[in-house]
Amino acid sequence: MFQVQFVSCSTEETMRIAERFGQEAGAGDLFALDGDLGAGKTHFSKGLAKGLGIKAMVNSPTFTILKVYNGRLPFYHIDAYRLDENEEEELGLDEYMDGGGVTVVEWAGNIQTQLPNRRVTITFKRTNEQERELIVCTDSPRFEQIFKEFTDL
Ligand SMILES: Nc1ncnc2c1ncn2[C@@H]1O[C@H](COP(=O)(O)OP(=O)(O)OP(=O)(O)O)[C@@H](O)[C@H]1O
Ligand SMILES: [Mg+2]
């Protein structure tokens, strides 16, 4: 398992990092995002979409739970903010996550038990007004190149 920390100093930088993940992402990849309100999860999702070649505007689907977009691969944008971990409601998200697309889940902690183990976990921390820490955990070597690009490893 790799754990890498990025520091982003602007919304643009967060989106640029995410866009690279979108470019490298493959069928079945799932990005599980966690962090407080306004931590930058939706900006990351927008960047991911851009990297997948999606032109449509991607917004937080807070009231719809799931939005589907078509890019280089299908893109499933899930926002679990309104879902409760203790509510054992089966969402039936498997058909999306096992499919040939790329999935991003905001507030992933709320549906942790329903997520596959093979995932890229990204925790967002707000360090000041413009700065965010992104802690990325993955066992996929596919994203190694991105780690080299954005950190001083
Ligand atoms: N480096 C940064 N990266 C991302 N967002 C930043 C950064 N600096 C400041 N911001 C601001 O933080 C906010 C991030 O909003 P965003 O909707 O992406 O967060 P979120 O984690 O999805 O929040 P929510 O949980 O409410 O959906 C925006 O207002 C954005 O302008
Ligand atoms: Mg959001």
From TrEMBL:
Keyword ATP-binding: yes
Alphabetical list of Pfam families matching this protein: TsaE
Main location: cytoplasm
Keywords: ATP-binding, Cytoplasm, Magnesium, Metal-binding, Nucleotide-binding, Transferase, tRNA processing
GO cellular component, one term: cytoplasm
InterPro entries: P-loop_NTPase, T6A_TsaE
Compartments in which it is found: Cytoplasm
Keyword Transcription regulation: no
Signal peptide (residue range): none
Record GO terms (molecular function): ATP binding; metal ion binding; transferase activity
GO biological process, one term: tRNA threonylcarbamoyladenosine modification
Coiled coil: none
PANTHER family in the cross-refs: TRNA THREONYLCARBAMOYLADENOSINE BIOSYNTHESIS PROTEIN TSAE (PTHR33540:SF2)
Entry similarity comment: Belongs to the TsaE family.
Name this polypeptide is given: tRNA threonylcarbamoyladenosine biosynthesis protein TsaE
Species for this entry: Salicibibacter kimchii
